[in-house]
Design a protein that fits this description.
This protein has 636 residues and is an alpha/beta fold. The protein has 24 helices and 22 strands. The N terminus is likely disordered.
Length: 636
């Protein structure tokens, strides 16, 4: 039994995907039969059955009855604890993930229970399974839901958080399965690597005991046992969208900087520089560079005192200040809370209080905002997400939007994407794309569309890319009752989203509403047409738009969606200047373009996705080359 699940993965992969998926369908009756038989057992007997399955070390062959038994046990525990029956699509999703695939399951299909199912099945291996979410809130929510199910089955389920001490984390990692945000697993891996390096350093300095017996120092206690199995929720977001952002463990400090003057002086100097003469701006690459004239200008009058406190060349401070002023906007890329600069995640709109920009850029933003300038964090260890996730022996996951990234998931991680048909057919109505020559006319049109839809009584979810955009919409809805969810509130996000499906509800939210949150329709709303989703600005990736749109029409509910676009949107300004000119040329006097330009938008997003994929692929190839070079040097 100890090698069973590994063998299961190899066996079904050897069958070919079509054969494996057909085999999954044949397993469903066996799972239901097991669940029915187990339903006659007492709670105590159910625990014994589960523990026996975990402790069985005898079976050396592949047994479909073992798969059916483990799934049947979880199914029955869910029925007893939650009073619900799992759908066949959830069981099929679990089988797919267990086979080391990405199961693509639509919004509202119950992926939380699927994640628990696979965590339980992999937890039976006895090596620990890591279930990773995109943020701490979702990890805590899913852990709270699944924990009672694990207890009914006699298995342990841990949770890791940023606030825990080493002892608490060790205990969580030594559970049969462990939940937590993906980045926290990565940071703990880096912490273990630092401990190992420190131990080796001590060992090389203290080869012998005081008594001269020659015993080397002991290895440190590590947080994680090993990288055995990783189950990733919202896998495309974690493995693709965040792939170019490495996991960096810093020596965190919030102390005021000992020498803040260089950052402040740089902020003053950039106010005197002239774009095009002293520096150039590349909007596509979102970068600035000083000209020769600019280099000469910034060096004039720099005091010896300031020069003596520099940690890097002076032009780097000025270029950081230019970057902060030209491309980093308040309520877009960061917010000010409690007189501190806090980063905003570009994909979700969530605020991260524990993240900072590196190499002095964070301090440049602090100088721009006239808040206390803090000490720079020293990087202690770093690993790319591509490197980290490839460490796991078993890597798998689920998402609602993975098909567009299936080639990259296959080439980089060796993961196939398996679309799982929904429990009920989707009834979503997609309204035509609306385009505008400028953002002002777009915002006015969006506000009018909200008011018009509100008259029908249907709930409305308005998705924005930035906090600033959410507040613009809110300012245009004077006299209307709405909920504003944009990462600046301390209120419970789930509680706010839970109300978004009520009759007449208006919810304005950054893209965080598109990931991991569930909007259930009130009883009288389906007859009105269900939830209507407005996407106020296209994202770089069509997948992110689809994530937000997926909030409507869950589990066969009625619903609709509409996307708005303007020539001033970031995507168009940075990557499609020709399209911006086209929009302005075609616009009517009210600023709207009365033409179907949806195919143009698709082409822009597809081209950008290809460019990003090439960047990620090049980074991956470079990392592989470095790994191979290190291995060769180690052998020699």
């Amino acid at each position: 039994m100890s090698n069973y699940f590994n063998k299961f993965g190899s066996w079904v992969m050897g069958l070919g995907r079509d054969s494996a998926h057909s085999r999954d369908a044949l397993l469903l009756p066996l799972i239901h039969a097991e669940r029915e038989a187990l339903s006659r057992l007492s709670d105590e007997a159910l625990v014994l059955e589960s523990r026996q399955l975990r402790d069985d070390k005898v079976a050396d062959h592949i047994s479909e009855s073992c798969i059916a038994r483990s799934f049947g046990l979880y199914f029955e525990a869910v029925r007893r604890e939650c009073g619900i029956h799992l759908y066949d699509v959830q069981l099929l999703g679990g089988l797919s993930i267990l086979r080391r695939e990405i199961a693509e399951m639509k919004t509202g299909e119950g992926k939380t229970f699927v994640g628990g199912l696979v965590s339980y099945a992999m937890g039976l291996r006895g090596h620990g399974a890591h279930f990773m979410t995109t943020n701490a809130y979702l990890a805590e929510r899913d852990h709270a839901l699944v924990l009672p199910i694990f207890k009914r089955l006699g298995l342990t389920l841990g949770l890791i958080t940023r606030e825990q001490g080493p002892a608490e984390k060790m205990a969580a990692y030594r559970s049969d399965a462990t939940y937590g945000p993906g980045y926290e697993f990565g940071f703990d891996y880096l912490r273990d690597q630092i401990s190992l390096l420190a131990s080796k350093s001590r060992s090389s300095r203290t080869r012998f005991r005081e008594d001269g017996t020659g015993s080397e120092s002991e290895l440190p206690q590590l947080l994680q046992t090993k990288q055995y199995a990783a189950i990733i929720d919202e896998a495309d977001s974690v493995l693709i969208d965040e792939a170019t952002t490495p996991l960096v463990l810093s020596g965190s400090t919030e102390r005021p900087a000992k020498a803040p003057e260089p950052y402040r002086v740089a902020q003053i100097i950039v106010q005197t520089l002239v774009a095009g003469l002293d520096f150039s701006v590349d909007k596509t690459k979102r970068s600035t560079s000083l000209t020769q004239r600019g280099m000469e200008k910034i060096s004039l009058g720099l005091s010896p005192h300031v020069r003596s406190t520099l940690r890097r060349p002076w032009n780097y401070y000025v270029e950081n200040a230019l970057q902060a002023n030209q491309f980093l906007g308040r309520d877009q890329h960061y917010i000010i809370r409690d007189a501190k600069v806090m980063l905003v995640d570009g994909n979700t709109g969530r605020v991260f209080s524990d993240r900072t920009w590196s190499s002095g850029l964070h301090q440049a933003v602090e100088a721009k905002e006239s808040v206390v300038i803090t000490e720079e964090n020293d990087s202690l260890a770093k690993v790319s997400r591509q490197q980290y996730f490839r460490l796991y022996e078993s890597l798998c996951g689920m998402s609602g939007t993975a098909s567009e990234a299936k080639r990259e998931l296959r080439s980089v991680y060796g993961l196939a994407v398996n679309p799982i048909a929904p429990h009920r057919a989707c009834q979503r109505v997609v309204l035509p794309l609306r385009c505008f020559a400028n953002s002002d006319s777009k915002w006015i049109a969006i506000a009018a569309a909200i008011r018009e839809m509100h008259l029908t009584g249907r709930p409305i979810l308005v998705g924005t890319r930035t906090i600033e955009a959410s507040e613009i919409i809110a300012s245009l809805l004077t006299g209307y009752t709405f909920s504003l969810l944009n990462g600046k509130q301390d209120a419970d996000e789930a509680a706010m989203i839970a109300l978004a499906g009520k009759r007449g509800a208006i919810t304005i939210a950054t893209n965080m509403a598109g990931r991991g949150t569930d909007i259930r329709l009130a009883q009288d709303v389906a007859a009105l047409g269900g939830l209507h989703v407005i996407v106020t600005e296209p994202n770089d990736s069509a997948r992110v738009d689809r994530q937000l749109v997926g909030r409507a029409s869950r589990q066969g509910d009625p619903g609709s969606c509409q996307l708005f676009l303007s020539a001033d949107d970031r995507l168009i300004v940075q990557h499609a200047g020709w399209f911006a000119r086209h929009l302005k040329k075609l616009a009517a006097p009210d600023g709207e373009v009365h033409a179907d330009l949806s195919s143009d938008l698709k082409q822009i997003q597809a081209r950008l996705e290809r460019d990003f994929a090439v960047t990620r692929q090049n980074m991956f190839v470079s990392e592989r080359w470095q790994e191979d070079a290190k291995a060769t040097m180690a052998k020699s």
